[in-house]
Write a structure and sequence with these properties.
The complex is a heterodimer of chains A (about 300) and B (about 280). Chain A is mostly helical and about 300 residues long. Chain A contains 14 helices and no strands. With about 280 residues, chain B is mainly alpha-helical. Classes of the chains: A mainly alpha (about 300), B mainly alpha (about 280). At the A-B interface, α1, α6, α7, α8 and α11 of A face α4, α5, α9 and α11 of B.
Chain lengths: ~300, ~280
């Protein structure tokens, strides 16, 4: 178990390092930052001067090691655009995105679990087919478009919810719901599949033969066994939700990490871009590790292995 | 018959979209790029003030919405097919290699897949497009180079299952070379899984292109990408909701059709798929 854990940790570290190298190289190829900073009419000379000031004229590996050394001491550099330290920008934008992501995965579980169980209990009936069709339709809706339609319906026509920003908690409702929409079909399919298998298993037949109540069979016996992959997948889905938050944050004008990255990408502000890409990668790898560990903790067969 | 319905409905939608995409220039009632500032925001024909000359109305620059929607079908389908070709090639190659050779080859393949999964897809796609410059070709290649992990995972596990079967051992004993075995014995026998993955990837690519174009770093104007149409019409959506409803519904129907086709094919071919 310890060996397995160490191996996973080492691999996770290597993955993060690779992603960092990729994002670092990618953003350095841009080269439009100095031009953006110097303005459209700047001479080649003043652009070169700015590049020298920022250290951009040094070889790529030197820049990388320099950045890595500072990053290990908590210095992620400064944003050229916002004139603030990247660390501070992340500190102020991360909580918003994390709140949105956690709310979204909560909504996704609250919707997908009951619907998936309902579909499995009624396998092959009209209810099952209807839930299946809803899943397919949900998967086909462009999330940014869903966001705009919700803004029109609930924000403007009904006037129930704010159409932009997260000044209070009501601002989180629509963006969290839109983000949840991405994860719901995946988790619903998984719940249904797991429950269908579990309900066919021998221990459920035994429980039924013992005369246990239907609710007890479904919740205590079948769901407990179907839950493992669902828990694991919700951790991974949270990673996808966080990484995909950029579109929803732009639609709802929510100043989170995704919005910050979008604004930075447009201006070529690469210290911010590479830090945010790395952070999302770290979060994703961490959540995947967590999913593995949860699996091991929930399943005694894996624990002893 | 009932379980054939998704396959039939999906096939009809995808076939129709493909035909529209191919012969788009013959179908458009107006020039999709021709502006007419005195004919801005004509509503669709079924609404008050609509005209039969512009069945789906006109946009903020007086361009015929139906013509733009038709040409937009071509953009979406081009994105879908090119992504499947590029990502299918990369992913299947990796999956076949990892699944067949195992050992350190497999470990390298799985590592590459893990790295790809850890990369935040939309952010990196946005960064690439902002650096290289936005054009249809750039978006097509970017999505193709990013969306191969599902192909790799599925073809790897399918290859592992097939590689242990008797006919592979028989081919090896008969003196077939490794490339021959991989391409002529294994690939045809995992193809039904790959077809299903292709539909999933196509749907994802079309939605992603729309999202990138919506964010201003996808297909550049004046091309009528459906995502870009939604972005350009967004400022007017409170007063004229149909300007975003029409391209959004078009996206929904096309992607739903592709998903239905994929589900139908999966059941018909007996393939598994992890969505």
């Amino acid at each position: 178990m310890v060996r397995y854990l160490l191996r996973s940790l080492l691999l996770a570290g290597l993955v993060c390092l690779t992603v960092l190298v990729i994002s670092f190289t990618l953003t350095r190829f841009g080269g439009n930052l100095a031009i953006n900073l110097a303005g459209p009419d700047a001479s080649a000379e003043s652009i070169a001067k700015i590049e020298h000031q920022l250290g951009l004229d040094r070889p790529l590996p030197v820049q990388f090691v320099d950045w890595g050394d500072r990053a290990l001491h908590g210095d992620l550099g400064d944003s050229f655009l916002f004139h603030e330290s990247v660390a501070h920008l992340i500190e102020t934008h991360l909580p918003v995105t994390l709140t949105l992501g956690l709310l979204a995965i909560g909504i996704a579980i609250a919707v997908a679990l009951p619907l998936g169980i309902l579909a499995a209990l009624n396998e092959g009936t009209v209810i099952d087919v209807a839930i299946g069709m809803l899943t397919l339709a949900g998967q086909a809706i462009p999330s940014f478009w869903l966001g705009l339609m919700l803004i029109i319906w609930f924000g403007v026509d009904l006037g129930w919810l704010p159409i932009s920003g997260v000044d209070d908690w009501t601002g989180y409702i629509m963006p969290a719901f839109v983000l949840a929409f991405v994860a719901i079909p995946v988790m619903l399919r998984l719940t249904r599949g797991g429950m269908v298998d579990a309900l066919r298993a021998d221990y459920v037949r035994t429980a039924r033969a013992k005369g246990l109540s239907r609710i007890s069979i479904v919740l205590k016996h079948a769901l407990r066994n179907a839950a493992m992959p669902i828990v694991a997948v919700s951790a991974v889905q949270l990673g996808f939700i966080l990484g995909g938050s950029v579109v929803t944050e732009v639609v709802f004008n929510v100043r989170g990490l995704g919005y910050l990255a979008w604004a930075s990408i447009q201006k070529g502000d690469f210290p911010v871009i590479q830090a945010v890409v790395l952070l999302f990668a770290l979060l994703f790898v961490g959540l995947t590790l967590l999913a593995d560990l949860l699996n091991a903790a929930l399943d005694p067969r894996l624990r002893t292995a | 018959m009932r379980h054939r319905l998704p396959l039939v409905a999906g096939s009809i939608i995808v076939a129709a979209a493909t035909i529209i995409a191919v012969i788009a220039p013959l179908l458009v009632p107006h020039d999709p790029f021709a502006q007419n500032l005195s004919a801005r925001f004509i509503p669709p024909a079924w609404m008050q003030g609509g005209s039969r000359d512009h069945l789906l109305g006109t946009d903020q620059l007086g361009r015929d919405y139906l013509s733009r929607l038709i040409l937009g079908t071509r953009i979406s389908m081009m994105i879908g097919f090119s992504t499947v070709l590029v990502s299918g090639f990369i992913g299947t190659t990796l999956g076949l290699l990892g699944g067949y050779f195992g050992g350190w080859v497999d470990r390298v393949v799985m590592f590459v897949v893990s790295c790809r999964l850890a990369i935040p897809l939309i952010l990196v796609a946005l960064t690439v497009v902002s650096i290289v410059g936005s054009s249809l070709l750039v978006v097509m290649l970017t999505l193709g180079l990013l969306l191969w992990e599902r192909f790799a995972v599925v073809s790897r596990s399918a290859t592992q299952q097939v590689a242990g079967l008797d006919y592979i051992a028989a081919a090896w004993a008969a003196g077939c070379s490794r490339p021959w075995i991989i391409l002529r014995e294994i690939l045809p026998n995992i193809a039904h899984h790959l077809v299903v993955i292709a539909t999933i990837e196509m749907a994802i690519a079309i939605l992603l292109e729309a999202a990138l174009s919506f964010l201003g770093l996808g297909v550049p104007p004046p091309l009528p990408s459906w995502g870009l149409m939604i972005a350009e019409a967004k400022d007017y959506m409170f007063f004229k909701p149909w300007v975003i409803e029409i391209p959004g519904l078009a996206l929904l129907i096309l992607v739903l059709g592709i998903n239905l086709l994929g589900d139908g094919l999966r059941d018909a071919l007996g393939a598994r798929s992890e969505r």
